[in-house]
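look at this stuff:

>
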Amino acid sequence: MREVCAVILAAGEGTRLRPLTDLVPKALCPVGNIPLLDLALMRTNRLGLTGPAQVAVNACHLADQIVSHVDGRAHVSVEEPPPLGTAGGVARLRDWIDGRGVLVGNADAYLIGSPPDALLAGWDGENVRLLGVPTSPTDPFRFGAHRFAGYSLLPWSVVKDLPTGRAELVHLAWRPAEAAGRLTVVPHPGTYVDTGTPADYLAANLRATMGGNLIGPGASVTGRLDRAVVGAGAEVRGRVTRGVVWPGGFVGADEHLVDAIRVGADLTVPAGR
Protein backbone atom coordinates (compact mmCIF):
# COMPACT_ATOMS: atom_id res chain seq x y z
CA MET A 1 0.00 0.00 0.00
CA ARG A 2 1.17 3.55 -0.76
CA GLU A 3 2.23 5.81 2.13
CA VAL A 4 -0.80 7.49 3.68
CA CYS A 5 -1.39 10.30 6.17
CA ALA A 6 -4.64 11.44 7.79
CA VAL A 7 -6.45 14.79 7.89
CA ILE A 8 -9.29 15.36 10.35
CA LEU A 9 -11.55 18.24 9.27
CA ALA A 10 -12.56 20.27 12.32
CA ALA A 11 -12.84 23.83 10.99
CA GLY A 12 -16.59 24.09 10.42
CA GLU A 13 -18.84 26.57 12.20
CA GLY A 14 -21.50 23.96 13.01
CA THR A 15 -24.30 26.43 12.36
CA ARG A 16 -27.05 23.79 12.58
CA LEU A 17 -25.86 22.81 16.05
CA ARG A 18 -26.09 26.30 17.52
CA PRO A 19 -26.22 27.46 20.28
CA LEU A 20 -23.96 24.56 21.36
CA THR A 21 -21.36 25.56 18.79
CA ASP A 22 -21.42 29.16 19.99
CA LEU A 23 -19.64 27.77 23.05
CA VAL A 24 -17.32 25.10 21.63
CA PRO A 25 -16.37 23.92 18.12
CA LYS A 26 -18.54 21.08 16.84
CA ALA A 27 -15.46 18.83 16.86
CA LEU A 28 -15.25 19.22 20.65
CA CYS A 29 -18.89 18.44 21.38
CA PRO A 30 -18.87 15.24 23.46
CA VAL A 31 -20.57 12.04 22.35
CA GLY A 32 -20.68 9.39 25.04
CA ASN A 33 -18.56 11.78 27.15
CA ILE A 34 -15.73 11.79 24.60
CA PRO A 35 -15.17 14.81 22.31
CA LEU A 36 -15.84 13.96 18.66
CA LEU A 37 -12.31 15.00 17.72
CA ASP A 38 -10.85 12.51 20.19
CA LEU A 39 -12.99 9.74 18.69
CA ALA A 40 -11.62 10.64 15.26
CA LEU A 41 -8.02 10.63 16.52
CA MET A 42 -8.62 7.26 18.17
CA ARG A 43 -9.71 5.88 14.78
CA THR A 44 -6.57 7.10 13.02
CA ASN A 45 -4.45 5.74 15.87
CA ARG A 46 -6.00 2.29 15.42
CA LEU A 47 -4.93 2.49 11.79
CA GLY A 48 -1.34 3.15 12.84
CA LEU A 49 -1.49 6.87 11.99
CA THR A 50 -0.33 8.90 14.99
CA GLY A 51 1.42 12.13 15.87
CA PRO A 52 1.99 15.40 13.98
CA ALA A 53 4.00 13.75 11.20
CA GLN A 54 1.12 11.46 10.20
CA VAL A 55 -2.08 13.20 11.39
CA ALA A 56 -3.26 16.77 10.80
CA VAL A 57 -6.31 18.64 12.08
CA ASN A 58 -7.63 21.84 10.55
CA ALA A 59 -9.29 24.52 12.65
CA CYS A 60 -11.09 27.82 12.11
CA HIS A 61 -14.21 28.41 14.22
CA LEU A 62 -13.04 28.86 17.84
CA ALA A 63 -9.67 27.60 16.61
CA ASP A 64 -7.86 28.34 19.88
CA GLN A 65 -9.93 25.65 21.57
CA ILE A 66 -8.95 23.10 18.91
CA VAL A 67 -5.26 24.01 19.17
CA SER A 68 -5.32 23.70 22.96
CA HIS A 69 -7.24 20.43 22.87
CA VAL A 70 -4.98 18.76 20.29
CA ASP A 71 -1.95 19.71 22.43
CA GLY A 72 0.71 18.31 20.12
CA ARG A 73 -1.07 15.07 19.25
CA ALA A 74 -1.40 16.18 15.62
CA HIS A 75 -0.27 18.90 13.24
CA VAL A 76 -2.80 21.77 13.35
CA SER A 77 -3.62 23.98 10.37
CA VAL A 78 -5.42 27.15 11.47
CA GLU A 79 -7.52 28.88 8.81
CA GLU A 80 -8.59 32.51 8.84
CA PRO A 81 -12.42 32.84 8.89
CA PRO A 82 -14.47 31.83 7.09
CA PRO A 83 -13.54 28.13 6.86
CA LEU A 84 -12.09 26.98 3.55
CA GLY A 85 -14.39 23.98 3.15
CA THR A 86 -13.35 20.36 2.85
CA ALA A 87 -11.30 20.74 -0.35
CA GLY A 88 -9.75 24.06 0.65
CA GLY A 89 -8.80 22.69 4.06
CA VAL A 90 -6.99 19.73 2.49
CA ALA A 91 -5.33 21.93 -0.14
CA ARG A 92 -3.93 24.22 2.56
CA LEU A 93 -2.14 21.17 3.96
CA ARG A 94 -0.59 20.24 0.59
CA ASP A 95 3.01 20.91 1.69
CA TRP A 96 2.47 18.83 4.83
CA ILE A 97 0.86 15.97 2.85
CA ASP A 98 3.87 16.09 0.51
CA GLY A 99 3.13 13.38 -2.04
CA ARG A 100 1.27 10.98 0.24
CA GLY A 101 -2.22 9.62 -0.10
CA VAL A 102 -4.53 11.12 2.51
CA LEU A 103 -7.33 9.64 4.58
CA VAL A 104 -9.75 12.54 5.13
CA GLY A 105 -12.23 12.28 7.98
CA ASN A 106 -14.96 14.60 9.21
CA ALA A 107 -14.55 15.22 12.93
CA ASP A 108 -18.34 15.23 13.35
CA ALA A 109 -18.76 11.72 11.90
CA TYR A 110 -19.84 9.29 14.62
CA LEU A 111 -19.10 5.70 13.64
CA ILE A 112 -19.90 2.47 15.46
CA GLY A 113 -18.18 -0.65 14.17
CA SER A 114 -14.84 -1.20 12.52
CA PRO A 115 -12.63 1.85 11.91
CA PRO A 116 -12.35 2.86 8.25
CA ASP A 117 -9.45 0.45 7.65
CA ALA A 118 -11.32 -1.13 4.74
CA LEU A 119 -10.63 2.09 2.80
CA LEU A 120 -6.91 1.37 3.04
CA ALA A 121 -6.91 -2.37 2.37
CA GLY A 122 -5.45 -3.12 -1.07
CA TRP A 123 -5.54 0.53 -2.17
CA ASP A 124 -3.60 1.14 -5.40
CA GLY A 125 -2.77 4.75 -4.56
CA GLU A 126 -4.58 6.04 -7.65
CA ASN A 127 -8.35 5.76 -7.16
CA VAL A 128 -10.62 7.71 -4.82
CA ARG A 129 -12.41 5.74 -2.13
CA LEU A 130 -15.39 6.71 0.05
CA LEU A 131 -16.80 5.05 3.13
CA GLY A 132 -20.54 4.64 2.57
CA VAL A 133 -23.79 3.52 4.18
CA PRO A 134 -26.90 2.36 2.26
CA THR A 135 -29.34 5.04 1.17
CA SER A 136 -32.51 5.38 -0.88
CA PRO A 137 -32.54 5.67 -4.69
CA THR A 138 -34.01 9.17 -4.35
CA ASP A 139 -31.19 10.50 -2.16
CA PRO A 140 -29.55 13.35 -4.17
CA PHE A 141 -26.29 12.86 -2.24
CA ARG A 142 -25.90 9.18 -3.07
CA PHE A 143 -22.95 7.50 -4.75
CA GLY A 144 -24.44 4.40 -6.32
CA ALA A 145 -26.49 2.80 -3.55
CA HIS A 146 -24.61 4.56 -0.75
CA ARG A 147 -24.29 7.88 1.04
CA PHE A 148 -20.94 9.25 2.21
CA ALA A 149 -20.15 8.14 5.77
CA GLY A 150 -17.57 10.61 6.97
CA TYR A 151 -14.29 9.30 5.48
CA SER A 152 -12.63 9.36 2.07
CA LEU A 153 -9.24 8.30 0.73
CA LEU A 154 -7.58 10.57 -1.81
CA PRO A 155 -4.51 9.92 -3.96
CA TRP A 156 -1.80 12.56 -4.27
CA SER A 157 -2.74 13.00 -7.94
CA VAL A 158 -6.04 14.51 -6.75
CA VAL A 159 -4.70 16.41 -3.73
CA LYS A 160 -1.95 18.22 -5.64
CA ASP A 161 -4.48 19.96 -7.91
CA LEU A 162 -7.01 21.07 -5.28
CA PRO A 163 -7.43 24.87 -5.16
CA THR A 164 -6.59 26.65 -1.92
CA GLY A 165 -9.76 28.75 -1.95
CA ARG A 166 -13.07 27.77 -0.41
CA ALA A 167 -14.31 24.58 -2.08
CA GLU A 168 -15.72 21.14 -1.29
CA LEU A 169 -14.36 17.66 -1.99
CA VAL A 170 -17.72 16.45 -3.30
CA HIS A 171 -17.40 18.82 -6.28
CA LEU A 172 -13.64 18.70 -6.91
CA ALA A 173 -12.70 15.13 -5.98
CA TRP A 174 -15.56 12.68 -5.48
CA ARG A 175 -17.93 13.53 -8.34
CA PRO A 176 -15.11 13.93 -10.90
CA ALA A 177 -13.68 10.57 -9.83
CA GLU A 178 -17.13 9.02 -10.10
CA ALA A 179 -17.57 10.39 -13.63
CA ALA A 180 -14.15 9.04 -14.62
CA GLY A 181 -14.84 5.56 -13.20
CA ARG A 182 -12.17 6.06 -10.54
CA LEU A 183 -14.40 6.08 -7.44
CA THR A 184 -14.96 3.09 -5.17
CA VAL A 185 -17.51 3.15 -2.35
CA VAL A 186 -16.54 0.87 0.53
CA PRO A 187 -19.59 -0.08 2.65
CA HIS A 188 -19.31 0.67 6.37
CA PRO A 189 -20.49 -2.43 8.27
CA GLY A 190 -21.65 -0.51 11.35
CA THR A 191 -23.58 2.63 12.23
CA TYR A 192 -22.86 6.14 10.96
CA VAL A 193 -24.40 9.33 12.37
CA ASP A 194 -23.69 12.82 11.04
CA THR A 195 -23.94 14.82 14.27
CA GLY A 196 -24.76 18.10 12.52
CA THR A 197 -28.16 18.80 14.13
CA PRO A 198 -29.35 18.61 17.75
CA ALA A 199 -31.52 15.61 16.85
CA ASP A 200 -28.63 13.71 15.26
CA TYR A 201 -26.22 14.78 18.00
CA LEU A 202 -28.60 13.38 20.61
CA ALA A 203 -29.10 10.21 18.53
CA ALA A 204 -25.34 9.61 18.49
CA ASN A 205 -25.18 10.01 22.26
CA LEU A 206 -28.06 7.61 22.74
CA ARG A 207 -26.27 5.08 20.53
CA ALA A 208 -23.25 5.46 22.79
CA THR A 209 -25.29 4.54 25.88
CA MET A 210 -26.15 1.12 24.35
CA GLY A 211 -29.52 1.32 26.09
CA GLY A 212 -28.14 2.25 29.48
CA ASN A 213 -26.62 5.37 31.04
CA LEU A 214 -23.15 6.89 30.90
CA ILE A 215 -21.89 8.91 33.87
CA GLY A 216 -18.63 10.84 33.71
CA PRO A 217 -16.07 11.07 36.48
CA GLY A 218 -16.96 13.33 39.38
CA ALA A 219 -20.62 13.57 38.35
CA SER A 220 -23.28 13.47 41.07
CA VAL A 221 -26.59 11.76 40.26
CA THR A 222 -29.26 11.69 42.93
CA GLY A 223 -32.17 11.78 40.48
CA ARG A 224 -33.35 9.28 37.88
CA LEU A 225 -31.72 8.50 34.53
CA ASP A 226 -33.19 6.71 31.52
CA ARG A 227 -30.81 6.46 28.53
CA ALA A 228 -28.82 9.49 29.59
CA VAL A 229 -25.27 10.77 29.20
CA VAL A 230 -24.03 12.79 32.16
CA GLY A 231 -20.71 14.57 31.74
CA ALA A 232 -17.81 14.89 34.15
CA GLY A 233 -18.56 17.04 37.19
CA ALA A 234 -22.24 17.44 36.28
CA GLU A 235 -24.99 17.28 38.90
CA VAL A 236 -28.38 15.68 38.28
CA ARG A 237 -30.93 16.02 41.06
CA GLY A 238 -34.03 15.59 38.89
CA ARG A 239 -34.82 13.29 35.95
CA VAL A 240 -33.11 12.90 32.58
CA THR A 241 -34.81 10.83 29.88
CA ARG A 242 -33.01 10.41 26.55
CA GLY A 243 -30.85 13.41 27.28
CA VAL A 244 -27.31 14.71 27.49
CA VAL A 245 -25.93 16.78 30.34
CA TRP A 246 -22.63 18.37 29.37
CA PRO A 247 -19.65 18.39 31.75
CA GLY A 248 -20.36 20.69 34.68
CA GLY A 249 -24.06 20.87 33.80
CA PHE A 250 -26.90 20.96 36.32
CA VAL A 251 -30.43 19.52 36.39
CA GLY A 252 -32.50 20.67 39.36
CA ALA A 253 -34.64 18.45 41.56
CA ASP A 254 -37.86 19.83 40.04
CA GLU A 255 -36.71 19.36 36.42
CA HIS A 256 -37.31 16.58 33.90
CA LEU A 257 -34.97 16.88 30.91
CA VAL A 258 -36.43 14.93 27.97
CA ASP A 259 -34.94 14.58 24.45
CA ALA A 260 -32.65 17.53 25.01
CA ILE A 261 -29.11 18.69 25.75
CA ARG A 262 -28.34 20.67 28.90
CA VAL A 263 -25.33 22.98 29.18
CA GLY A 264 -24.61 24.62 32.52
CA ALA A 265 -27.72 25.28 34.59
CA ASP A 266 -29.76 27.32 32.13
CA LEU A 267 -29.11 26.38 28.50
CA THR A 268 -31.42 23.63 27.19
CA VAL A 269 -31.31 22.65 23.51
CA PRO A 270 -34.30 20.49 22.47
CA ALA A 271 -33.40 17.74 20.01
CA GLY A 272 -36.49 18.37 17.91
CA ARG A 273 -35.87 21.98 17.04
Q: What stands out?
A: The CA atoms of residues 217 and 232 lie 5 Å apart. The two ends are 45 Å apart (CA to CA). The longest strand covers residues 146-154. The first helix runs from residue 20 to 23.
